[in-house]
Amino acid sequence: MAGRPTGEPPTARLAAQWRRAGADDVRIAADLTELADLVAAATGPVLVSGADLVAHTAVLRHLATSPVGPTVALVLTDPPAPGQATVREERGQVVEVDAADATGVFGGALRVGAADLPALAEAARRAAGVAPDPASAPDARPTVPASAPDARPTVPASAPGVAAAGGGTLGAVDRLVAGLAARGVLIFAHRVRLLVAHRAGDAAQRAAAEAEVAAVDEDRAELKLSVKERDDFFTTFFVSTWSPYVTKAAARIGIGPTGVTMVSVAFAVAAAVLFGVGGRPALVAGAVLLYLGFVLDCVDGQLARYTRHFSAWGGWLDTMADRFKEYVVYAGLGYGATHAGFRYGWALALAAMTLQTVRHMTDTWYGALHDEAARRPKVVTGDAGGIGGKLNAASTRVQADTGSVSYWLKRTVVFPIGERWALIAVAAALFGPLVALCAVLVWGTLAFAYTGALRTLRARWMRVPVLTTVDAGLYRDDGPLVRTLPVARRPLALAVLAALGAAALLGWALWAVHGGGDLPGWAAVLALVLLLGAAQGSRTPHAGALDWLVPAALRAAEYLFAVAVGVAGRAPAWLIFGYVLVLTLHHYDLTARLEKRQSAPPLHVATLGWEGRSLLLAIALIAGIASVALATLGAYLLVVFVASVVLAWVVLPARARGGAPSPG
Length: 664
Fold this sequence. Notes:
This protein has helices spanning 10-21, 32-41, 57-64, 117-127, 172-182, 203-214, 218-225, 233-238, 243-253, 257-277, 280-307, 312-339, 345-375, 387-400, 405-413, 417-431, 433-462, 472-476, 491-514, 521-535, 550-568, 573-596, 609-623, 626-657, and strands at 26-27, 46-50, 53-55, 72-76, 86-90, 93-97, 104-112, 163-166, 187-191, 197-199. By secondary structure, the chain is an alpha/beta fold. The chain folds into three domains: 10-225, Alpha-Beta Complex (Spore Coat Polysaccharide Biosynthesis Protein SpsA, Chain A), CATH 3.90.550; 226-464, Four Helix Bundle (Hemerythrin (Met), subunit A) (Up-down Bundle); 467-664, Four Helix Bundle (Hemerythrin (Met), subunit A) (Up-down Bundle), CATH 1.20.120. The strands form two sheets. Strands 4-7-5-6-9 form a five-stranded mixed beta barrel. A two-stranded antiparallel ribbon has the order 3-10. The longest helix is centred in the last third of the chain and has 32 residues, at 626-657. The two termini are 29 Å apart. The model is unreliable at 1-6, 133-170, 378-384 and 660-664 (pLDDT under 50).
């Protein structure tokens, strides 16, 4: 889009752009006091910018619809001018304003979420030299977005916000962002790529910036921006080189991101069926469908970014669909390997699913740890010369050296989803399901060992009590039974002991069944005692340097215990796999909610907790009805999961809006 005429008043130009970007109520505040009054009257997200901003309309639209967080600030790489605030970012968060080691300059525009509006109004009044209004700012340190119902809400293009193109003194909007940061508000950074945004201090700078805006094809740039800036090797060179064309076609046809996700699921399910059928033609066809399904898995995100059609439902569905697709493929490979004559095909599929889920649990909690360290930089007081500090510095250097061999090795060795799907497709097509499963297990185990060792060293250096900032009981998946147990310290040691006990029980069960005998009932009771011992750590503060590993250890303990019960009870292998698959769906639902700092699912209590489910399985094993218990409990949990999804994404939102629209 060409730039606006240079003779047009900057405030009128910017106000018109905000309207085109989707703001439905645009006001021009004369000063910060008037801005504070406008903010105090607002009920939804507010968009604020200074009159010196010259940018593509797409830049404003991207800021208004950014899915990264409720409060987002535009950050530029331009040299700072007098009166402009500099910022320091870590992991996409603005952790300091006017920092000595700044990584960018504030771009003069920000979106403030509804939960942070009291802080914005107070910051505006204080910047204007007016005493804060107690009615509009009841808390000098307002609730941070992490405690809001959704820490990553979608702000639609027609958001009922206020775009205030303030015409006051240069630096007024800079004082606002500094005030928000000083009040502990979590601010995410929105960087500008391919498009143009500058802060122009005079007519000459404005004319130059408008000419730069006019020289860029806005739509072409937006299509390129739909591709992630940094992705993994396989995705970058074998998918993203042509997937934007599919994204463009889908946008023209009118297919939404959710529709693309569902087609991707269908492709993965078809690939799993073909892997199970076996035979070279079927395996090759399955590999092709798996690759195309992964392409569509990338396209749904690219389409959401290109069309700016973000939704909390779409993000949740994408997370759940990715795991369901992968684990269904594991099931197809397990069946195919068993059908080809390998006795333990389902066992390998179970091992791959369990390993990947436990890996993802550590990824999620380590990410939460790192985010907490980023937003609380003063807590990170470890010895910069120690091994953790050196690893952190080395990782930062490698990540900055994009395109180098070390950069791609670092991104590939961790075995991301693109590499996993590529390995499965190639190994299955060339060598068959058994080799594909073994390859996934070997690379996955090495990647887990590599990331686990490095993260453990870095976590001890960061020393951030991450689990004190979230509902540990919810994300541990504790049930009602834990409230009846005594409290014990050292939750990580208890969780690891429980996982080791479950692993020992599984080994014993395999040995007993292989020898034609039965597992002693007291062995299951002993393993259950160790599990319940881990439940005793639920109400203990998870403030240890390595307590971010607790949820992953609990997932491993429950899955291994369930598998051991199934093996000892001689349940069909496919039934054991199905039960654990249902558990992973439940746990990934909790993981998605953790990433958005959402509350518990509507029917969370009905899932009984990991310790309650394990207790029921132990009783069933002793009673000799392990297969019945796995089938019944698995079906029950699946019904509860589906009902919870319907309640969370359809019924409750419809009641809140007074209508009955379906999620989209």
